[in-house]
Amino acid sequence: MTDTPSPTDGDAIIDTPFADALNERYLAYALSTIMARSLPDVRDGLKPVHRRLLYAMRLMKLDPDKGFKKCARVVGDVIGKYHPHGDQAVYDAMVRLAQDFAVRYPLVDGQGNFGNVDGDNAAAMRYTEARLTRAAIRLMEGLDENAVDFRVTYDGEEEEPAVLPAAFPNLLANGASGIAVGMATSIPPHNAAELIDACQVLIKARRGVRGPVAHEELLALVPGPDFPTGGLIVEPRASIAEAYATGRGGFRLRARWHTEDLGRGQYHIVVTEIPYSVGKSKLIERIADLIHERKLPILADVRDESTDEVRVVLEPKSRSVDATVLMESLFKLCDLEIRYSLNLNVIDLDGRPRVLSLGQALEAFLDHRLDVLKRRTDHRLDKIARRLEILDGYLVAYLNLDEVIRIIREEDEPKAELMRAFSLTDTQAEAILNMRLRALRKLEEIEIRKEHDALSAEQAELQALMADPGRQWRRLASDLDAVRADFGPDSPLGARRTGFAEADARAAEIPLEAMVEREPVTIVCSRRGWIRALAGHLDADKDLTFKEGDEERFRFHAHTTDYILAFTSAGRMHTILADKLPGGRGHGEPLRLIVELDGDEDLVALLRYEQGHDLLLASSEGRGFRVEAEKCLAQTKTGRHLMNLRDGVRATHCLVVEDGQDTVAVIGRNRKLLVFELDEVPYMTRGRGVILQKYRDATLSDLTLLKAAEGLSWPMGGNSGRVRTETDLTPWRGRRGAVGKIPPQGFPRSNRFDG
């Protein structure tokens, strides 16, 4: 009989559903990623790799006042003893802690090439050296005083701290970012002095000196992030308040800039601070691409004049370019403005991932500091108790010095005899036996009594501290004041770097035409649809060349910042920026290359867009409507579909309603003329329109707008140049949709108002 292997056997095969096995293993991987790699601890704000780096450097005695050591040696210790991962990943984490443009308060003092704001990588670890900074020392104060728990390392040969004592509010001061399985964290850096001020207010509330701290009061002390690269936060205050209240949100951060006068009305723009985490070289490359691709035609050049400080110079194309318009355009087109997200997702005090508010994160930091204070105090009390025990034994020995000497000289078991004769403990007896002869002098006795008195006083003070929560909070407040002295506004790292600006004053939409220089042009389009924009406003009698068999159809004046409206026989309106039209060399380009036209779609009207004007549209079946010009603008090459046309019906007219025009005159191919009030034509944004003139077996021939007081005019026959005006239009007046009557004698046989 074959024995079935038990599940505990090393080579046992366990039959389990694949889905269950996959879920179990993926869950374990996800938890490992969340807890041991991606999310920082709310207490010290560090991930395990950063904590192990600092601890290893501390054991190597790389204090701020000591010499540097090779980074390769540090990385070797970390991956060998504490963090069994790739050396490059560990070195990259170390490099980031040393970059003053990546972290607000560097924890590593680097010597050598540790990268730069351009985005260049650091030198190899064999070339660079490092030591700890004062902020890192603050994080590890009390490690030798049982301030935190230790755990065994991955191989069981060493111990490492589970968390650092963190006298410095590192989580919010330096921020953190990371992506785990199913969750992520993104915490921007903050100003340490502001965080400590907020903590002091929370401590007063804990002591009962004042009432609970409102969220608005915390925001007054911590108004927003303080990025190491400076810049300006333009997020509305209400949005910032909501982000800090919920732990989720974002901040709009833009570069800081100013103009420098070059004389004679010329200037250039200097960017002195760029947004956090943006590489300067890639930013300049992006701006250069915008210039090359003509996406920002009002910018002539960009150059980098940076030294130790950022100085990016932007040259406008002309002195007439508005600096604010130029910068607003850049903010929209490149990373001179970014949005930095806030997701305050951390490992909370109970060891679980949780999204905290600003107040909750500060409260968790204070709870951790209170626990550290109690543990350090207990540790100190234990040391004092052990030392007082030994000092008490010394004092007994001095009071009975002759007898002690006799026992040591004559007794076979002097330790046991000392304990019996003077009621000493084992520790006291051992200490007396280990005393040197030099310590028996009178002066040493005086020193021991002084030490005993001092330790007794310290013991009483610490016992009072442990018994009184109010004293504990006062001690924490005093400790934070000492930290603030190192990182406050008067320190090299303390002054706030990131400013604030009103978001609504800078968030106005910049129109596309504001990004183009305003220059006069003449728009010309031929009957075959070849369009061009010639420089300057040309006279109407200026002769132009066209392709053989082609001739001029439209000509009007505009500027490069104007929109050109092209209405087609399919009832679609296309919008073209005049600056995008081909220049005056040659015959231009076919309109079909600029906008998308169907095979049989023809151009009906080409005109300059004027804000506030109305357009009158009409089709061959005698229908039409009015539409506001603003509602005709289209953002795509396919245009905006305005008229719904039946099969065989084509759009025929698009007229601009000029000021004072109040009457419509329409004539059909049946040679019937109708005149009616413009107000009878309704406004629409899309559709077939209403009946303008009724036909039985005819279609619309022509349409025009006029002022009733001036009458209807048309050219006389031949080339005489004479114009006839009919002021009394009563015979042809009627309601919209009527048939009309035969036009006046002498009206053109072409049935067109222009002859």
Note the main attributes of this structure.
755 residues; alpha+beta; Topoisomerase II, domain 5; Gyrase A, domain 2; Topoisomerase, domain 3; 4-stranded mixed beta sheet; 4-stranded antiparallel beta sheet; 18 helices; 32% helix; elongated
Structural write-up:
The chain is 32% helix and 22% strand. Among the domains are: 46-165, Topoisomerase II, domain 5 (Alpha-Beta Complex); 256-335, Gyrase A, domain 2, CATH 3.30.1360.40; 360-487, Topoisomerase, domain 3 (Orthogonal Bundle); 649-755, Neuraminidase. The chain is α+β, with helices and mostly antiparallel strands and 755 residues long. Residues 504-508 have low confidence and may be disordered. The longest helix is centred in the middle third of the chain and has 42 residues, at 358-399. It contains 18 helices and 34 strands. A hairpin with a 3-residue loop joins strand 18 and strand 19. InterPro entries: GyrA/parC_rep, Gyrase/topoIV_suA_C, Topo_IIA-like_dom_sf, Topo_IIA_A/C_ab, Topo_IIA_A_a_sf, Topo_IIA_dom_A, TopoIV_A_Gneg, Type_II_DNA_Topoisomerases. Its EC number is 5.6.2.2.
